[in-house]
Amino acid sequence: MNKGANDETAFIRKKILALGELLVDMIPGRENMLIQDAGPVIKTASGSAGIFACAAALLGGDGGFIGKVGKDSLSRLVTETLCGQGVDMSRVVESDEGQIGLAFIEYLPDKRNYQYYRKGSVGSLLRAEELDEEYIAQGYAVHFPGMLLELTPEMRGACKRLMELAHKHHVLLSFDPNIRRELSSAGEAHARLMRAVHAADIVAPTLNEGRIITGKETIGDVLRSLHAMGPKVVALTRDKDGLVLSRDGQVAFADGIDEEPVDPTGAGDTLAAALCVGLREKMSLEQLACFCNCAGTLVITKKGAIGMALPTRAEVDAYAAKGVCRVHTTTLASLA
Predict the structure, then answer these.
(1) Helix, strand, or coil here: 281?
(2) Is position 5 within any domain?
(3) CB 144 within 8 A of CB 159
(4) Between vectors from CA 273 to CA 218 and to CA 332, what angle results, nearest 5°?
(5) Residue 280 half-sphere exposure, CB side, CA atoms within 13 Å?
(6) 308 occurs within a structural domain
(7) Which of 311, 308, 306 is nearest to 292 (CA)?
(8) Tens-digit pLDDT profile for residues 189-204
(9) How many CB atoms lie within 10 A of CB 181?
(10) What is the pTM of this model?
């Protein structure tokens, strides 16, 4: 079908959607404060898919969220926060099945430690039949994180339905393996993870997750194995060493940017959102790698995520314009 100018404009404006569970993060209100310590905490909207949706909206991607919230005050806090970030929340189901989940965080010298209070949370009870097929069909891309596959049977069914609808309506499916060992259960979890990778058009694992999924070691072998499973676009994140982006037999290496990390919360989700935004805008591979790397890096310079650390499109563009991100390209065939 030939597309006229109006059709092309309509295509460009299709939403970038995320399915997931929203949470409330409880962040320490003072330095070196542990979860067991009495003292002030800061309440923030969170959840991997919620961060993705907010990042997509802030980066110019018309972000939308698909999920379930309760009728409790903290559910209202999160819903209003995402609306304030420009996220379309029109397909979020409001339910009296329970309350929104909580995540308490402490910043230790070598890592972040989470304690979740989310068993039976309302957000984990999204069901396949509650997804709006027409809404999903009108999207440019839909995204979900792999940890959802291990939350509840209800959420697992919703993810499966999302994959089916994305395939049926030719909507790009973006998947972040987001491997959480505390939520996984032996072989069954691995099988679910692999089915999602095979279904995805876009995957954005860490390099270590890529090695776990493929059983390969070198970057070239990991990329080739992931592409062989089905995804057309693969982004391997490497923390301080930057990003490797592969598409159509070409690979871009975006070097790590020298920034002192304050909090990595949301960096991977923001990078995945930037990837979908850049693909929708038909960025070149080199431009896309720089855009994603800059967006993800800016997040780590501030504590928190939604409403606190996620960058706007203007901030990412200005950051990239400083020349902070060096990118070089090669062919996939040439990599060891």
Answers:
(1) coil
(2) no
(3) yes
(4) 30
(5) 29
(6) yes
(7) 311
(8) 889 999 999 999 999 9
(9) 6
(10) 0.93
